[in-house]
Amino acid sequence: MGFNVAGMSRRRTVFKKTYDGQKNLFLQGDITKKQMVQASIRKIVRRFGTIDIFIHAAGNTHRAPFHKVTCSAWNRVIDTNLKGAYYCLRDIIPLMRGKGGSILLIGSVGAFASWEDEAVYQIAKTGLLAMARAVALENAKYNIRANVLCPGLIDAPMLTSLINSKDAPKDFRRELLRDVPLNRLGETNDVVNAAVFMTSQWASYITGTALLVDGGYCAR
Ligand SMILES: NC(=O)c1ccc[n+]([C@@H]2O[C@H](COP(=O)([O-])OP(=O)(O)OC[C@H]3O[C@@H](n4cnc5c(N)ncnc54)[C@H](OP(=O)(O)O)[C@@H]3O)[C@@H](O)[C@H]2O)c1
Questions:
Q1: What mean pLDDT comes out for the span 175-189?
Q2: Distance of CA 127 to the CA centre of its chain
Q3: Quick check: pTM over 0.90?
Q4: How far is CA 32 from the centre of its chain?
Q5: Which of 105, 149, 158, 183 has an alpha carbon 20 to 30 Å from 134's alpha carbon atom?
Q6: Separation of 59 CA from ligand 1 center, angstroms?
Q7: 44-61 as b/e, with b when 16 or more CB fall inside 10 Å?
Q8: Average pLDDT of 160-181?
Q9: d(CA 42, CA 1)
Q10: Which atom of ligand 1 is nearest to the CA of 125?
Q11: Which residues lie below 8 Å from residue 196, measured CB to CB, with a gap of 6+?
Q12: Beta pairing class for 24-28 and 53-56
């Protein structure tokens, strides 16, 4: 689509497969480290001049009953899903205030529905809704839009590692599909297509809200 793409994650291999190329920039880094985020944003600006679209997709989870969540697990999940977005936006909003921009935070159906043993993840993703609303309100006059995209059960690593884990119940995939009216797991492209729409001019009147991409999961 003619964009320059910069991306950051801890493992180079993940990003290289998809984006490494002449007009793209991969920055190996940890979103939970403030100075690393600041340095990465400076590098992006040196290379491309500014940032027009920002997507925060870094995420992880921890499975345990709420009262058994350790402090280190709490910090790991909140820092990656929620605080990482804050670290990025502190530096990206001032850049975007010059000529506008679009911010998309990748949330989850977990911000709208609860299930057992994943409360920290649900809490972090719910926090992103408040973050997007606040950022949208404070920056509408600068033509900056901020939204959350909330995927449901997607055939992507976070879910597939759970489905394939040794503790997963037999027929877990089939069991999960009972909760999805469209009767299939989402594909990565279902999320990508929605993200392209939400960050594009087609969505120029959409801000401070969330879009569910969940095959009807939350409609039940
Ligand atoms: N799969 C689903 O069903 C589903 C459903 C709803 C929402 N989501 C959300 O969609 C997003 C992508 O999930 P996925 O299923 O595609 O799983 P994934 O491949 O594990 O995606 C997580 C990404 O976050 C990056 N990341 C994790 N910790 C990081 C850190 N400290 N610093 C920088 N990058 C970090 C990982 O790269 P590195 O490990 O290389 O750092 C990885 O690329 C997540 O936010 C997830 O919560 C997924």
A1: 97
A2: 12
A3: yes
A4: 14
A5: 158
A6: 4
A7: beeebeebebbbbbbbeb
A8: 91
A9: 24
A10: 47
A11: 1
A12: unpaired
Q: Given pLDDT bands bounded at 50, 70 and 90, which one contains residue 2? A: confident
Round to whole Å and give the CA distance between 34 and 85: 10
2 by Cβ neighbours in 10 Å (0-12 / 13-18 / 19+) ranks as: exposed
Q: Each residue of 81-129: pLDDT tens digit?
A: 999 999 999 999 999 999 999 999 999 999 999 999 999 999 999 999 9
Phi, psi angle pair for 149, to nearest 5°: -105, 125
Task: Tell me the pLDDT tens digit for each residue of 207-218.
Answer: 999 999 999 999
Residue 1 has pLDDT above 90, yes or no: no
* Active-site hit among 86, 121, 205, 217: 121
Which tens digits make up the pLDDT trace of 49-67?
999 999 999 999 999 999 9
Q: What share of the chain is helix, strand, coil (3-state, %, to 5)?
A: 50, 15, 35
Cβ atoms 156, 188 nearer than 8 A: yes
Q: Any catalytic annotation for residue 205?
A: no
Q: Which atom of ligand 1 lies nearest, measured to the CA of 61?
A: 47
